[in-house]
Amino acid sequence: MTDDTPFPWFVAIGASGTDGLRDIQDVLSALPPVLDAVVLVVLHRSWDHPSRLAEILNRVSLLPVSVARAGERFAAGQVYVGEPGDHLALAANSFGRLVYDPDRRYRNRTVDLLFRSVAEHGGSRMIGIVLSGALDDGARGLAAINETGGLTMVLTPSRSVGRGMPENAIAYDGPIDLIGSPIEIAAGIREAVQSGRRAWLAVERR
Questions:
Q1: Which residues are named in the active-site annotation (predicted)?
Q2: Which of 24, 121, 147, 165 is least enclosed by beta carbons within 10 angstroms?
Q3: Could you tell me if residue 4 is inside a domain?
Q4: Is residue 137 flagged as an active site residue?
Q5: In terms of residue numbers, what domain contains 69?
Q6: Which of the residues 44, 87, 94, 132 is marked catalytic?
Q7: Pair type for strands 151-155 and 126-130
Q8: Percent of the chain residues past pLDDT 70, beyond the cut
Q9: pTM of the shown model
Q10: Which CATH number does the domain housing residue 136 bear?
């Protein structure tokens, strides 16, 4: 897949907890209603309760949000989430892959799982985004996206909390193309997808 192919962009977003959910809502609410991108969202949340993530995000997102189905071909202009125990990933030819994990093998590595699948199958039109969350999930996967030619974006770390997902992503291997607020990240997504170029970035290298 190259930049002159008709395939859409893949935007992979990872976050954790209440703050991460709020960040995802802020990003999605700032995206336009028409976007030539498949948006894939992973949020760490309880495995023991039914998930209403798609319903919650649909309240604020101008793009429709749905729970991905295994083997489904992802469509541009859509947001996809997985169930807590069925981890969302990208397979070849834009098809969805759900990793059933009854033994919780991946535990707090579900963002890395998504990002690495996008790095493998997303071609050069891909963006990895790390938002709020504890620990370091997403750092390795974001580096994989960078290494395969994708764009990387990270939420500006909060000074009021300890080191978490944004801080670890920035400190890990590979440059970050954009560090900013959810609104700035949404603007970066929109510009990258609409322009098809990297030149627009006001790059903030670590």
A1: 16, 44, 137
A2: 147
A3: no
A4: yes
A5: 9-195
A6: 44
A7: parallel
A8: 85
A9: 0.90
A10: 3.40.50.180
